[in-house]
Amino acid sequence: MRKHAGNLKPLVGFNTTKAQELFLELIDILSKHPTLGELDEKEQLKIRVYNPGQYTTKGVEDEARKLFVKRYEGRGKALFEYAGRDGETLRLSPIGIEGLLEVGLTDVVPALRTYAGVRRIDISGVEECALVNPKNVTLRIRKAKGMGSMTKYNSAANDIRAAHKNLAGDILLVRRAQMPSTGLYWLAYCASDKVLGITSALLNLRIRDAFIAKMITLYLNSSIALLQLIGFVVETRGAWITLHGDQVWKHVHVPSFEGISKKLRNNVLKVFNKIARVDAENLRLLEKQLLCCILRSQAKPLRISCPWR
């Protein structure tokens, strides 16, 4: 009870005692390694939430969400959809009306609204963005999209810009998901430039070391990490789950950052580079593999494989 005071799910959330015993055995084996929460307390990393329009100001939540540009699946209130890039110029398409808006790279910040349809673990260069200079939106588009109060949109843009500077992550963690969803491919995403994830779908994890970010991203997408999440996950409705930062992700044990040999570092980078741009299969297939492993474990030792194999 004392050990799991932050989340009692491991003690009450399993349908059978056998499943609970397997999970507690796994956690006991991993207990010599730090949790994300312990590393956060030591300031070796930071897990942060961004609620659009609520970081530096209030009352512009709706406007802030509309400034996040759509590139992948995910529903939302976005005003624009990503239409392409030509050098330092981005082309945005106003959703529902004809025409294009061209903006510079300094007019946007890297962002991600959703994990839905994002098939690559490394989203560097293929992330979404958020418009932080709405003054560049033409009068015709503003009228067509109902952007009447530019004061609110400017405040929302400032909120996003400040949040990107202080909260954006090297890793984005899935926060709310429907596990059987065909649009869910990874549990954690990595980017070379800091990307701002929004709290409805994603959490921001910031790490100073680029190599450690890649290593942790690989590990958090392994079946060992998924098994830990299953034990702590918050079930909201039906197949919908919530992976809160404090209640779930911070309980996950990860490899220690210290004492990594040159050989291990090279191996990690080799694996990461191999799968970084692979269009993965959705997580439903991994779920089936894990269920089969757990069922077979009744008769023989549990074997755990990594999703990139």
Keywords:
309 residues, disordered C terminus, seven-stranded mixed sheet, alpha+beta
Whole-number tally of structural domains: 1
Q: Which of globular, elongated, flat, extended, rod-shaped describes the shape?
A: globular
Q: Which residues form runs of ≥5 with pLDDT under 50?
A: 298-309
Mean pLDDT: 86
Question: If you had to describe this structure to a student in words, what would you say it looks like?
Answer:
- Helices cover 33% and strands 20% of the residues.
- The protein has helices spanning 9-12, 17-30, 36-41, 61-66, 139-144, 150-167, 210-220, 223-232, 262-275, 283-296; strands spanning 46-48, 68-69, 80-86, 89-94, 101-104, 108-112, 128-131, 169-174, 176-178, 188-197, 202-206, 234-237, 240-242.
- The strands form three sheets. Strands 1-11-8-10-6-7-2 form a seven-stranded mixed sheet. Strands 3-4-5 form a three-stranded antiparallel sheet, with no helix packed on it. A three-stranded antiparallel sheet has the order 9-13-12, with no helix packed on it.
- The relative contact order is 0.16.
- The protein has ten helices and 13 strands.
- It starts with 8 loop residues before the first helix and ends in a 13-residue tail after the last helix.
- The protein has 309 residues and is α+β, with helices and mostly antiparallel strands.
- It is globular and about 65 Å long.
- It has one domain (9-296).
